[in-house]
Write a structure and sequence with these properties.
By secondary structure, the protein is mainly alpha-helical. It has a domain of 98 residues: Arc Repressor Mutant, subunit A (Orthogonal Bundle). Helix 3 crosses helix 4 and helix 5 packs across helix 7. It is built from nine helices and no strands.
């Protein structure tokens, strides 16, 4: 869509979490409790700031709003879990803190650029191809390219 930006285009200033102690506390809390509901009000309370000011402060330091950032954190966790374990998509959505599957799928597509199902197929394809390469002595397996745009996704 012309004029709209994907959230993956926005740059998150990760250094803000190292240089701003208030934001470091929020990040630590989110890293430990990402699967639980975390509101803007809770984050503001952890940072010891008023809710409205925290919203502006977070955006000015990190570069994205709090809601987009926490969604990005959850999607990053989902991607890691998807690559390291064979979870079902619904289980994965709930494990990273989403309350319904549709919201998870939309957010995943927005941040990762593919649907969770396509990503899972791609990961499986790469795992199978890696195992095949190991068996045949390092030669590239044809199975690696069976999924549409496989190498471009990961």
């Amino acid at each position: 869509m012309p004029g709209s930006k994907s959230l993956s285009v926005y740059q998150v200033n990760e250094f803000a979490f190292f240089f701003c102690p208030r934001l470091a506390k929020v990040k630590q809390h989110v890293d430990e409790h990402y699967a639980e509901p975390i509101s803007l009000g809770q984050a503001a309370q952890i940072a010891a700031l008023e809710r409205t000011y925290f919203c502006k402060y977070f955006h000015s330091k990190v570069g994205v709003c709090f809601a987009d950032w926490i969604t990005r954190v959850r999607i990053d966790r989902a991607l890691l879990m998807l690559m390291n374990h064979d979870h079902g998509i619904t289980d994965l959505a709930f494990a990273v803190g989403f309350k319904d599957l549709r919201t998870f799928e939309r957010a995943f597509k927005k941040f990762a650029g593919v649907t969770p199902r396509d990503c899972k197929r791609t990961v499986r394809c790469h795992v199978e191809a890696g195992a095949a390469r190991t068996i045949v002595g390092g030669k590239r397996s044809r199975r690696q390219c069976m999924t549409r745009n496989c190498s471009a996704r990961l």
